[in-house]
Amino acid sequence: MSPLSGTSARTGVLRWTTHALAAVGGCAVAGIVLVTVGDVVGRRFGLPVKGAYDLVRVLGAIAMVCALPLTKAVKGHIAIEYFFQKLGRRGRAATDTLMRAVLLALFGLLAWQFVRQGNGFLESGETTATLHMPMFWVPWLAAFACLVTAGVTLWHLLHPGRSMIRPR
Predict the structure, then answer these.
(1) What is the C-alpha to C-alpha distance for residues 87 and 71, in angstroms, rounded to an integer?
(2) By three-state DSSP, how is residue 49 classified?
(3) Mean pLDDT of 135-161
(4) pTM (2 d.p.)
C-alpha cells in the first residue's frame, strides 16, 4: 500500500464526516421548522409544544456547529477579496497559509474549550429549563464539529489551491 492510499482514505473519511455533520445540521434546521410550526399551530388550538424554546435553542446550536465543516470545505466563508487581490502571488500564498494556520489553532482551541464546557455541564447536571434535557452533549458535538473543521483546514493547508469538496 502506498503512502498516498492512506491519505486518500483519510480524505474520504473526512469528506464523509463533513457530509454527515451537514446532514445532521440539515435535520436540525428541519426540526426547528417543525417545532416552530407545530408550536404556532398548536397555540391556535390551545396545545402549544411543550419545551419549544428549549428544542429550538438546542436545534439551532446543532445546526450552526454542524454547518461549519462543510462551509469551510466548500470555501463558503466570507473573504475580503479586495485586499487579498491587491497582494502579489507570494503575498496571497503567505497570507492564506498564515490564516489557515491561525484557523487551525482557533478551531483546536474551540474544541478543547467545548469539551471542558461539556464536562462541566455533565458534572453539574445542566439541563434545559422546560424539558430538563441533559445539555453536556451539545458542547461535545460542537467540539467534534470544530475538530472536523480543523481537519478540513489542515487538508486545505496541505493541498493549496485544491477544493476538498466542490459546492453543488
Answers:
(1) 25
(2) coil
(3) 94
(4) 0.87
